[in-house]
Design brief:
Layout: H1 7-26, H2 31-47, E1 55-60, E2 63-66, E3 69-70, H3 75-86, E4 89-94, H4 100-109, H5 119-125, E5 131-135, H6 146-161, H7 166-170, H8 173-193, H9 213-233, H10 238-247, H11 251-265, H12 278-296, H13 302-322, H14 325-332, H15 340-351, H16 354-361, H17 371-383, H18 387-399, H19 406-425, H20 428-444, H21 448-467, H22 471-487, H23 489-499, H24 505-514, H25 522-528, H26 530-543, H27 547-559, H28 562-574, H29 584-590, H30 592-603, H31 608-621, H32 626-633, H33 642-652, H34 658-665, H35 675-687, H36 694-702, E6 704-705, E7 708-709, H37 713-726, H38 728-738, E8 767-776, E9 781-788, E10 791-796, E11 805-810, E12 817-827, E13 830-837, H39 840-853, E14 854-855
Length: 878
């Protein structure tokens, strides 16, 4: 039965346990340690008798004793007892004369963590104090043999008495060395008993030759048997099993084991991850050292090292399964245990000297090195600035994919897939070479499984070339694809979408547009894919609103060569009605003769929306031949589009259009044209400053029929405004005789601005209204807030598609004002429209409405680039 001791003594034991832990965790001078020290010292003073031997704290197994009487203990006290026993202590004697400094010396001298301080060293540290450490002694011993037999005695008796402690011994290299010493001592005793042997002789551990691979594998199997026995028996047979297994080993194996244990005991375990069992660490170290020794002696090639490590890794994997505590710790830490063959390979590579790593990676056997080792070494070279060596290693490694050995090609293909980002970040020439080597091997490879692996490497390297914008490498990938297609057309077609070059062409175009000069190699890539690039350029050009961007796109299109132009030309000549109109703008810059040849025959058959697109594209393209083309098309256009075409003709600034415009201004209208076309021709003559039109314009302004003017007021106003542009002085002198006031001449047409950054410009200054004007269409209501003689911007209830023709009814008063308009832009709840046709009387009413509601301000100023017109695509300008 466990006796209870006085409360102060039990409190002292608990506080001493806590004090020692605090000292190990925080250090002796820490505030928490100092506070705990005070409490412990107070309890020790209360526990010591006034006279006598003092206080004796003993430990046996997991039981603590005070003055030879066991005390009730909890788990922390049991651990404390095991700690004292594990350190080789039987008891600690506190004399009645112990001082505070003596207790401090005890705490400082106590082994910290996994410190290997011996009992003798601890006794020496406590010498001269009021505290004495008593060592475990089971039997009397001969001083002459104490050094050789102490380990055997301790193990044989202590472990035999407490079998549960085997795992602690198996996890401590020092104690495993003691196990070996015990075995050696037992052999020495047996040798002395044999006749003819000198007393005290022990078998020599000197190596008679190099350790063989089978002997090392036997050592690893022995570790498995020891670990398995410890798990199954709870450690009761630990010393006997170890000594029995050790006795069966050859001398070379025993010497190797002792050296490995000594090295392991001198190494500190890693602190950033769960600690592995010593048997596992020992097995790994022996396997790595064995492989390294054989490799350095030249007995095996690099590929044979891997095979050897695989075999030993299987044995160590079996040991790991037995010593499952390590996996449990890793699982709790959220880590995944990797195969032991990989662990051994990584550790072997770390142990290879620098010169050995470099020579292997620059040799034809570089394929034997796993990709993570290649990555590690190359990144180290790059960090040190040795770029040339890193380049040579990557080139050599990629070249191994052409090896005659199938296994070499398979492993390099897998490795290149994993190292593709390293190639992408390196020299562009190295990536190009790797892609070329992989592509060349794909043309020759006949094994289906290797074709798959190599194609994966080829695709991944090509994707990295696209990702890092290595255009020379991308070009090499395309050239390799063409070569593969010549050999295996179907296989090459399956590779193209996986690489995705065509899908990244839009990004390549962005790169080209962002820089003044096309990046090296990008132009060659675009020329290799003229058709898809031409389609992308066509769509971008038709959506472009900025003149500089448009010119850049034209230059890119020209760089594609004749094939791209031929594609656009053929599309205009015989393409679908939905696609052919989209080619006109860009083609008018690349091949205007083809536009003049094919467009007239096709445009007459197209609907109004397609004709509208053609007019706007030709005007926005800025081709010198654009004015001539528009004039040639005038008779084929829908009547509603003729006024818009005349506006674009005048904005081109080409004086060759003046004779035809003058005919229209004098009344020779195209077939089906309305009088609104005549008004637009008059405005166009003013924009073009046509001196030969002065007489005709004066006639329009001044002609009378008896007591009234011969022409409508809107025609007269348009002619007077045109005369002001052509002959300002003469127009001012004749103004009083025309009957037109300065107010009538408000809102003149805007002139084109040379050097404007916009591909299309406003025809009239935009005016902000003092109050919104309500307008209705067939199916919805609009509120117009910005308006001029050529169009406006309104809030709408539902979305309207650009190009839609609207019949607008403005309701400024009792009688609605009517016009035909085409939707130009459609944003969230906002629509921009352009007037296509209206009666001259309705235009006069619109002018009066603007005079009444227009708010003076920047929006009504004469032509300049307004922020409201910022980058809007060409088909969305009003």
């Amino acid at each position: 039965m466990i006796e209870t001791k006085p409360i102060p003594a039990r409190a002292f034991v608990r506080n001493l346990n806590i004090l020692l832990k605090f000292a190990r965790m925080y250090g002796f001078d820490h505030a928490r340690t100092a506070e705990q020290f005070d409490a412990t010292w107070h309890d020790l003073q209360a526990s010591l008798p006034a006279e006598g031997a003092g206080l004796l704290l003993g430990a046996t197994g997991s039981q603590l004793l005070i003055d030879s009487s066991p005390i009730e203990t909890t788990t922390p006290e049991k651990n404390f007892a095991q700690l004292l026993s594990g350190a080789g202590l039987a008891s600690i004697q506190f004399s009645p004369h112990v001082t505070r400094e003596d207790l401090a010396q005890l705490v400082r001298a106590f082994p910290a963590g996994r410190d290997t301080t011996t009992v003798e060293q601890w006794k020496e540290a406590l010498l001269g104090t009021g505290i004495r450490a008593n060592e475990i002694r089971f039997i009397a011993e001969d001083a002459a043999t104490a050094d050789t037999k102490v380990a055997a005695q301790l193990i044989a008796r202590t472990l035999g008495a407490d079998a549960d402690r085997l795992r602690n011994w198996l996890n401590d290299p020092q104690k495993l060395i003691q196990l070996m010493a015990a075995a050696e001592a037992s052999h020495a005793d047996a040798a002395r008993a044999e006749p003819g042997e000198p007393a005290g002789a022990a078998p020599s551990l000197a190596s008679s030759g190099a350790l063989k691979e089978d002997e090392l594998v036997g050592l690893l199997k022995m570790f498995c048997r020891i670990g398995q026995a410890g798990e199954m028996t709870g450690g009761a047979q630990g010393p006997g099993i170890f000594q029995e297994q050790l006795a069966k080993l050859p001398e070379n194996a025993q010497l190797t084991l002792r050296q490995a244990l000594t090295n392991l005991a001198s190494q500190a375990p890693p602190s950033n991850q769960p600690e592995e069992p010593v048997l596992l660490r020992l097995a790994e170290q022996m396997a790595i050292q064995f492989a390294l020794d054989r490799y350095e002696r030249g007995e095996v090639r690099v590929d044979a090292v891997r095979q050897m490590l695989d075999r030993m890794g299987r044995e160590i994997e079996s040991l790991r399964k037995i010593m499952s505590a390590h996996e449990e710790k890793m699982a709790r830490a959220g880590l995944k245990a990797e195969p032991h063959a990989e662990i051994l390979d990584r550790q072997f590579w770390a142990a290879v000297p620098e010169s050995g790593k470099r020579s292997v990676l620059l040799s034809p056997e570089a394929w034997c090195i796993p990709p993570r080792n290649v990555r590690q070494y190359v990144e180290q070279l790059l960090a040190r600035g040795e770029k040339d060596t890193a380049k040579q290693i990557l080139s050599t490694y990629a070249h191994c994919i052409r090896s005659e050995e199938a296994e070499a090609r398979r492993r390099v293909a897998l490795s290149l897939t994993e190292l593709s980002d390293l190639y992408g970040r390196g020299e562009e020439s190295v990536l190009s070479e790797a892609i070329r080597e992989a592509g060349a091997q794909l043309m020759l490879e006949r094994e289906a499984e290797l074709q798959t692996r190599i194609s994966e490497a080829f695709v991944r390297l090509s994707q990295e070339a696209i990702r890092y914008r290595c255009y020379a490498a991308v070009q090499q990938a395309m050239a390799s694809l063409d070569g593969i297609e010549n050999q295996r057309p179907t296989f090459a077609q399956s590779l193209r979408p996986r690489i995705g070059i065509e899908g990244r062409l839009a990004e390549f175009l962005d790169e080209a547009l962002r820089t003044e000069q096309i990046p090296a190699g990008l132009g060659d890539i675009l020329r290799l894919l003229p058709r898809p690039v031409a389609s992308l350029l066509l769509g971008r050009f038709n959506r472009c609103g900025v003149r500089g961007d448009g010119e850049r796109l034209v230059q890119l299109a020209k760089s594609l060569g004749a094939e791209a132009v031929s594609q656009l030309r053929e599309l205009l000549r015989a393409g679908p009605d939905a696609e052919a109109p989209e080619t006109v703008g860009l083609l008018s810059r690349l091949d205007p003769a083809a536009v003049e040849q094919f467009l007239p025959d096709r445009i007459r058959m197209w609907p109004r929306a397609s004709q509208d697109r053609v007019i706007r594209q030709i005007a926005a393209a800025g081709s010198p031949e654009g004015c001539r083309v528009l004039l040639a098309l005038l008779g084929y256009l829908d009547p509603l589009l003729m006024p818009l075409a005349l506006d674009d003709i005048s904005m081109c600034g080409d004086a060759t259009a003046v004779p035809r415009l003058l005919q229209i201004a004098q009344g020779e209208l195209p077939e089906r044209a309305t009088v609104y076309v005549r008004l637009k021709a008059i405005e166009a003559l003013g924009r073009l400053r046509a001196q030969e039109a002065v007489a005709a314009l004066r006639q329009i302004v001044e002609a009378k029929q008896m007591w009234r003017w011969a022409n409508h007021s809107e025609l007269r106003i348009a002619a007077a405004q045109a005369l002001e542009k052509i002959d300002p002085d003469g127009a001012r002198q004749r103004l009083p005789a025309t009957g037109l006031s300065a107010e009538d001449l408000s809102f003149p047409p805007l002139d084109p601005m040379p050097g404007s950054r916009w591909m299309r410009q406003r025809r009239y200054a935009r005016l902000r209204l003092a109050r919104p004007v309500t307008a209705t269409t067939e199916n919805q209501r609009l509120e117009i807030k910005l308006l001029n003689l050529g169009g406006g911007v309104a809030l709408c209830e539902r979305h309207l598609t650009p190009g839609t023709l609207l019949t607008l009814k403005l309701n400024p008063g009792l009688r609605p004002l009517r016009m035909q308009a085409i939707v130009r832009s459609a944003r969230a709840q906002t629509v921009g429209f352009e007037v296509a046709d209206m009666d001259l009387e309705e235009r006069a009413r619109l002018r009066k409405l603007l005079l009444e509601l227009a708010v003076p301000g920047p929006t009504s100023a004469a032509p300049k680039e307004s922020s409201a017109e910022a980058p809007v695509p060409a088909d969305k300008k009003t």
